[in-house]
Amino acid sequence: KIKGMAVILKEQGINADKLKAQCKGFKCKEGLTNCCCHWILFNKPDFISVPTNLESLCQTWGFKIIFLPNFH
After folding, report:
1. pTM value?
2. pLDDT at 61
């Protein structure tokens, strides 16, 4: 079962009852550290250090993966 961001934050001891899910356009105000659930989770160390599914799959098969920025 998929959990919502507010549920995950509550499990971590953070009261997220009055927080927005995310700021408009993912553009949080500069200097704020707790403006929305997305920002708080995005900056938690245990969420930052988790590899993506693609990274895990490649590592399982012995491949190395490099993410490069898009050039349009």
Report:
1. 0.58
2. 95
